[in-house]
Structure formats: C-alpha cells, structure tokens
C-alpha cells in the first residue's frame, strides 16, 4: 500500500462496473493507480441492481458514442467472460408487438439494428412468435428476434474486473468518499489533491466514474454542466419454477415514453419483470413502492398472465443516472488532467470494457504516458453463480477433494460452506452479508435468509476471522496455519 501523501499517476473515483473496468485497463500499464469507492464494496451502487443483459447494441441511437462502445463492449465482455468464468447464457431476445403501430415499427427497428452493424434480426409473425413463446398473453401480433442478446451476472462481472485490477497492482480503497478537491491549475501544478474521508490522495490525473454522484464530483472540479436525476427502476423476481415459462428475453417495442417493461430469465434461474422508470430527487431511494409493483403486475398480466400465478421470491429497485441526453457524457479536460464519465445507463454493463479503452485513450491524449507491462497475471477465475452451469454442490470430484463443497448452508440457492469460505479469502473479500450475497447467492432464494441467515452469518464471521489470521500468518509463518474450516 502506498503511504499517505504518495503521488499516484491516476485516481479513479467509483468502483462500479466502469471504474473497475478502467482500473483493470490501466493496470495493464506501468503506472500507479488508486481506485476510490465511497461504499464498503465494489459494485454496490448503480452496478448491482439492473436487468443484467449483455446487449448487442441493436437498438442504440446510430452514430452515438454509446452505440460505438456498446458494440465494441459486447465483444470484449463476451470474450472476457469466457476467460474468467463469468456466467453468460445466450437466450436471445424477441421484441413483441401488441398493437398495429408497434408491428409497423418493426421494420424501422430492424433497419436501425443494421445501421448499428447488427444484421441478425428477423421479423416473425404471430404464429411463429407463439411457437417460440407459447406462454405469451393473447393478442400479440408479431415479433423481432435478436438472437445474440444474452443474460449474465452483473455482480460477478464487477468483481472480476476489480479483482483483476488489484492483481495487476492497482490500489483499491473502499469506504473512501471524495469530499473536497484541489484541482490542478496551470502547467506548473504537479497534481490534483482529493480530500477524502480517509485522508488526502494526490494524483496527476483523475477520472470521475462516480455514477449517481458524478455530477457532485464534477462540481468539485468547478464545472456545472449536468445534473444527475436518479431514475428508479423497480423489478419483481419470480421463483425458479417460473423459468419454464420464459425462453427468451421478451422486450417491448420502444415507444415515445421509453423502452418499457420486459420479462427476462436470469442467470440464477429466476424470471424478472420490470423495470419501471420513475424520476426522483433522492439518490438513495432504492425501496420498492406500492404503485410501482402494482404497475408491473398490470403489465405482466398482459405480457404473460401465467407468470402472475407463480411465487414471487423478491422485489428490488435500482437507480439509473439519468442526465437528460441520449448519449454518454465522456469529456476530457487537458488543463485539469481530468476525465468525466457520466450518464452511463443500463448499457454500461455491456459497454464497460470499451468505455475503459476509450477513457484510457483520452488520458493518453491529454498527456498521460503509458508503457504496457511486459507480463500480466492470468485473469482471475470467478465462482459460477449461473444455474445453467455446474455448481459446487453438483461437482462430485470437487466435493471428494474438499467436503466443504458438499456442505450446503443456504438450501434455497444451494450455496455451500466452501463457497462462503472462498469468498472470504478472495482478492476482494466481502465486508458484510450483502457482499456475501453478491459473491455466492446465499440468502437470495425463496426464504430470503429466514432459514439460513443465522448460519450464513456465523460462517461468514468465522471464515472472515480465519482468513484474517491466515493472512497474518502467511506473512509471519507461512507454513503453520491450516485452511479455514467450518465453525465449531
């Protein structure tokens, strides 16, 4: 760890998907980077609560920076997922037209996809639509297929990017809020000073990837060019038994009021219905509302009536950083050696690695000298949270080698002692039970921690303490400490 007052080449503010991807990108070069996160964990802001769809970019506005970066990011993230074991299912998507106006809009949407470089969309009639999705509600007229749309795990993606960044040598500081900025002014000034809740950070270049707080940080640099309006998106999560009803991501045909409500399978084996789109004033308003849930059920009753007969496992709300424009807001200031990354919407999951490339190039354009490292560690291998792939409790060879993977702690999600132990000993360990949830799926199932919560907490506390002791022992007496086991 760098001592207080040390000079970093780059400080990245915000350890969500984009900030973590940028830190990983910069970690491939000989420079000193610090990644600052106000919350207690990476990916704990906007990045943790979305529809987790890997987009082809077929419906982006042609010619925008977003369209370019989503298209590039799709390929980058698809390949990165394969190398790191991030779960991805290529379910494909279908835009469903319920009215004549929506049906008439499908040719233009197909042409738009082709403008964006995606030529695999196909228009289908009602008969073919119901053949592919027999549980759709009555009255659908036509559809437009997007065969390469996929579902993934946003939690695992953020953790993989941030873990790779740490392995590449960047310094991660969690629980560190930027409170005041002394911007670099004039050619003679060496650096910007970020005054944080944990002391001053000095950096030659600064990137603002603070998500919902990006406008606040931007004003700390003396700018007043945009305001973030938190847009709440509420979703309903249906039980795994509902998964048989949904074969594709079912998208609405976009209208004047936006993209609307979708029905989608999840990588964890559930089905989600949502999101709503409600502009708010409160950047912390992540609670569900009675009106929002009622609205979703009304929409769901038309899209897929049988879905409403299934059990609801959970509901949640995420916030998107609306800025009132149709494109990403990414700007570089050469004098301040400062880059703003704002207005990154739900497509940011897909575009994250391409945004990182783009921002790295902007930093070089404004003077950051970067030389590639000659060697890099292998990409981190992430634990599988996907229901369509082999989980530890199903892996006989793994259990034979380590019985902890056969000891199920959370029965709804079939999470084992070994997985929780591994999470606590990972590159970026959880600091609380919410972090355990995002790393293992524990407590996310039907009982919502009613049955397993106490056991998971006891195991987490035991493994966390054991990992801390192991870390101390590895520095003092490397061969003396046994691996963490289950609590007595």
What would you note in describing this structure?
The protein is of the alpha+beta class. The protein has 3 domains: 7-48 and 154-228 and 325-365, FAD/NAD(P)-binding domain (3-Layer(bba) Sandwich), CATH 3.50.50.60; 93-147 and 229-322, D-Amino Acid Oxidase, Chain A, domain 2; 392-476, no CATH class. Helix content is 31%, strand content 22%. It has helices at residues 17-26, 65-84, 100-115, 126-132, 154-167, 214-220, 290-303, 348-365, 396-401, 417-424, 433-440, 453-476; strands at 7-13, 33-37, 53-54, 88-89, 93-97, 122-125, 142-146, 150-152, 171-174, 178-182, 192-196, 199-208, 229-238, 249-252, 262-265, 271-274, 278-279, 312-322, 329-333, 338-342, 408-410, 415-416. α1 runs parallel beside α5, α2 (65-84) packs across α8 and α10 (417-424) crosses α12 (453-476). The chain is globular and about 65 Å long. It starts with 6 loop residues before the first strand and ends in a 12-residue tail after the last helix.
Strand content: 15-25%
- Give the CATH class of the largest domain: Alpha Beta
Binned, the helix content reads: 25-40%
The main β sheet shows up as: 8 strands, mixed
What's the architecture of the largest domain in CATH terms? 3-Layer(bba) Sandwich
List the helices and strands and how they pair.
Elements: E1 7-13, H1 17-26, E2 33-37, E3 53-54, H2 65-84, E4 88-89, E5 93-97, H3 100-115, E6 122-125, H4 126-132, E7 142-146, E8 150-152, H5 154-167, E9 171-174, E10 178-182, E11 192-196, E12 199-208, H6 214-220, E13 229-238, E14 249-252, E15 262-265, E16 271-274, E17 278-279, H7 290-303, E18 312-322, E19 329-333, E20 338-342, H8 348-365, H9 396-401, E21 408-410, E22 415-416, H10 417-424, H11 433-440, H12 453-476
Parallel strand pairs: 1-2, 1-12, 2-9, 5-14, 12-20
Antiparallel strand pairs: 3-8, 4-8, 5-7, 6-7, 10-11, 11-12, 13-16, 13-17, 13-18, 15-16, 19-20, 21-22
Helix pairs in contact: 1-5, 1-8, 2-8, 10-12
């Amino acid at each position: 760890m760098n001592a207080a007052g040390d000079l970093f080449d780059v400080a990245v503010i915000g350890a969500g998907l984009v900030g973590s991807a940028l830190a990983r990108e910069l970690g491939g070069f000989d420079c000193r980077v610090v990644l600052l996160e106000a919350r207690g964990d990476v990916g704990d802001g906007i990045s943790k609560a979305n529809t987790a769809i890997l987009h082809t970019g077929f419906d982006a506005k042609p010619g925008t920076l977003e369209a370019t970066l989503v298209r590039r990011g799709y390929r980058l993230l698809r390949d990165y997922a394969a190398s790191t074991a991030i779960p991805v299912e290529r379910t494909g998507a279908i835009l469903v037209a319920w009215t004549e106006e929506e049906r008439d809009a499908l040719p233009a949407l197909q042409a738009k996809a082709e403008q964006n470089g995606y030529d695999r969309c196909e228009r289908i009639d009602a008969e073919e639509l119901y053949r592919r999705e027999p549980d759709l509600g009555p009255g659908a007229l036509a559809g437009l297929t997007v065969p390469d749309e996929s579902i993934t795990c946003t939690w695992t993606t953020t953790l993989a990017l941030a873990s790779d960044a740490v392995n590449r040598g960047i310094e991660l500081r969690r629980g560190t809020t930027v409170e005041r900025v002394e911007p670099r002014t004039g050619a003679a000034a060496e650096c910007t000073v970020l005054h944080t809740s944990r002391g001053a950070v000095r950096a030659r270049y600064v990137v603002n990837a603070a998500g919902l707080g990006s406008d606040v940080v931007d004003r700390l640099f003396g700018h007043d060019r945009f305001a973030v309006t938190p847009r709440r998106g509420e979703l309903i999560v249906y039980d795994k038994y509902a998964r048989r009803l949904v074969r594709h991501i079912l998208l609405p045909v976009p209208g004047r009021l936006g993209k609307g409500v979708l029905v989608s399978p999840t990588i964890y084996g559930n089905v989600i219905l949502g999101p709503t789109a409600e502009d708010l004033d409160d950047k912390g308003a992540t609670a569900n509302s009675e009106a929002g849930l009622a609205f979703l059920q009304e929409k769901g009753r038309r899209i897929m009536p049988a879905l409403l007969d299934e059990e609801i496992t959970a509901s949640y709300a995420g916030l998107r950083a609306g800025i009132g424009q149709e494109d990403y807001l990414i700007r570089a200031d050469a004098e301040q050696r400062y880059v703003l990354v704002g207005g990154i919407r739900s497509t940011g999951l897909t575009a994250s690695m391409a945004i990182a490339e783009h921002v790295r190039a902007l930093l070089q354009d404004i003077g950051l000298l970067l030389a590639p490292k000659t060697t890099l560690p292998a990409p981190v291998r992430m634990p599988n949270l996907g229901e369509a792939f082999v989980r530890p409790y199903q892996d006989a060879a793994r259990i034979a080698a380590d019985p902890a993977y056969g000891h199920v702690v959370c029965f709804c999600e079939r999470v084992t002692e070994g997985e929780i132990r591994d999470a606590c000993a990972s590159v970026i360990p959880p600091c609380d039970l919410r972090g355990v949830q995002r790393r293992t799926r524990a407590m996310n199932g039907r009982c919502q921690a009613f049955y397993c919560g106490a056991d998971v907490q006891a195991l987490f506390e035991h493994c966390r303490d054991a990992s801390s002791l192991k870390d101390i022992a590895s520095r003092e007496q490397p061969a003396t400490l046994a691996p963490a086991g289950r609590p007595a």
